[in-house]
Structure formats: structure tokens, C-alpha cells
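Lab notebook, design round three. We kept the backbone fixed and only want residue identities now. Task for the bench partner: fill in a sequence for the structure below.
Input C-alpha cells:
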């Protein structure tokens, strides 16, 4: 493995120009052939990183890689299922062999769902847990040694459903809350070695036109709620979390208000959410 450069301090990082903010860094972004992951790959590449994109759809992954390269960015694509330990191990091994290092891991791959808990097909429960929790734990497990060597960053993409449970997203909420526990444990284990561990709590974000979530029976549903943030805005928050080495980042005034209310006025928050009766998360066939 090639020699590792010293991680800049926050004050040093603030003097770095935007175009070289992530210069000489190698960043792996899971689930990056579309959506927030693709927007993050583009932004990181703009800031000078060598970007490794990942996904299961090889055609879509190749299209995203071509988009990045057409803009003159350094990019490689590694198709892999992040819920498969052998594929995750091979993915990280390939990155180290090709680039000599790994500085940033963004665990973005995930899937959402809608449906009352009592109606959920057991296969939906398993799929949502595997994708959102196991699919973040496994890449981190196999990337940890490289991140220790580079004194790098691992970031988990969560949701406001990872702060507070809402009707209709029970298993998704459980998986995202579990990410916070994983991040806290990793911080305790890895921060003494210089590794930054952060969580970004995204809010309702614009979707690709063909984006769907899983219904209670496993069939796809389209989300009807209006987005409050763009994919680019989420990518910018992820970048800030990495550069400033933040442990937790909450997006939008409404998201920050929810966190404040949940912490200081839990009963009032509970009453408001019960009054919503599931209207916060809507989806259609």
C-alpha cells in the first residue's frame, strides 16, 4: 500500500480551494449509479477525489462512470452487492490493488418501504434490514483497515426516520436507527486510530423519475410526498460531514426542529406524529 498523507486539520482544510478539497483522496460511494449516490460521486470528483462508484445494475453503473469520465473526472466502477460479504471483500481488495489506498467510504446504498407493520411480508422485512444495515456494515468491515491506514472517513446515510419512528416505515426506521448505534460503536473503536465516523440524516429528497420503494407485499410503490431537498444538497452535506469530520449532520430547518423537539419535548412530538396518522410518508402504486 502506498504511503499515506497526513489528514489535514479542520483549519488547514478551510484554506483548501474547492477544486482541490479532496485532492489525492480515494472515495468509495456505495449505491452510486443513481440518486444521492451519483450526485455525491459527481461532487466528490469535482472536489478532486478519485471516485469509485458501486451498484448492482452494471448497465446503469457503466452509464454513470461514463458521465464522470466525460467530464474529465477520475473514476472507476465496481459492481457488487453490498449485502454479500465475499463481494464486499473483493470490492475493497480491488480498490486497494488499483488505487493503493482508500480514504473515504460513503455507505449510501439503501432501500425504503411503505406499509403497516402488520401487513409486511417477511421477505420485505428481511430485505430492508439486509440492504440498509448489513449493506452498510459489510463494506465498512472490509474497508476498516484501509481507513485506519489513511486516517480516513466513513459516513452512513441515514434519515429522519433514524431519529424518530413514523407510521408506515417501521422496518426502514429500525434499520436506520441501528446505523446510529453502529456509528457510535465504530467511533469508540476507530477514532483513537484517527478514523472519522459520521452520520448524515437526510430528509425527503428528490427522486429519480423511476424511483420506487417497497410496498408491504414487496411490489414497487411510487413516493408521492414533495421533496424538501435536492440530491445535490444532500451531496453537499455529505461533503461537509467528511471535510469537517462531523459526527452527526441534520438537514433542513424542519429536520433540526424534529431533533430538538424529540430531545426536549418528546410527549409533544409524539402527539404531533400520532395526529399525522401516517400522512408524513405516502406512496402510490
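Proposed sequence:
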Amino acid at each position: 500500500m502506498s504511503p499515506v498523507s497526513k489528514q489535514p486539520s479542520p483549519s488547514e482544510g478551510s484554506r483548501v480551494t474547492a477544486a482541490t478539497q479532496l485532492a489525492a483522496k480515494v472515495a468509495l460511494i456505495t449505491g452510486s449509479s443513481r440518486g444521492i449516490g451519483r450526485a455525491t460521486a459527481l461532487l466528490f470528483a469535482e472536489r478532486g477525489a478519485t471516485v469509485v462508484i458501486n451498484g448492482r445494475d452494471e448497465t446503469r453503473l457503466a452509464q454513470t462512470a461514463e458521465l464522470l469520465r466525460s467530464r474529465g473526472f477520475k473514476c472507476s466502477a465496481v459492481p457488487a452487492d453490498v449485502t454479500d460479504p465475499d463481494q464486499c471483500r473483493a470490492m475493497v481488495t480491488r480498490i486497494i490493488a488499483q488505487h493503493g489506498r482508500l480514504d473515504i467510504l460513503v455507505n449510501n446504498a439503501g432501500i425504503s418501504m411503505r406499509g403497516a407493520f402488520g401487513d409486511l411480508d417477511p421477505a420485505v422485512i428481511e430485505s430492508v434490514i439486509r440492504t440498509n444495515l448489513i449493506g452498510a456494515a459489510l463494506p465498512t468491515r472490509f474497508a476498516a483497515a484501509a481507513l485506519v491506514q489513511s486516517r480516513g472517513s466513513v459516513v452512513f446515510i441515514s434519515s429522519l426516520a433514524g431519529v424518530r419512528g413514523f407510521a408506515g416505515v417501521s422496518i426502514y426506521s429500525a434499520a436506520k436507527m441501528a446505523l446510529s448505534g453502529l456509528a457510535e460503536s465504530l467511533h469508540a473503536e476507530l477514532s483513537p486510530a484517527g478514523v472519522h465516523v459520521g452520520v448524515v440524516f437526510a430528509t425527503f429528497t428528490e427522486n429519480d423519475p423511476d424511483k420506487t420503494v417497497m410496498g408491504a407485499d414487496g411490489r414497487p410503490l411510487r413516493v408521492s410526498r414533495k421533496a424538501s431537498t435536492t440530491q445535490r444538497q444532500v451531496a453537499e452535506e455529505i461533503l461537509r460531514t467528511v471535510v469537517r469530520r462531523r459526527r452527526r449532520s441534520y438537514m433542513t430547518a424542519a429536520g433540526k426542529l424534529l431533533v430538538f423537539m424529540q430531545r426536549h419535548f418528546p410527549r409533544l412530538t409524539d402527539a404531533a406524529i400520532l395526529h399525522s396518522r401516517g400522512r408524513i410518508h405516502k406512496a402510490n402504486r
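Keep this in mind before ordering anything: The radius of gyration is 18 Å.
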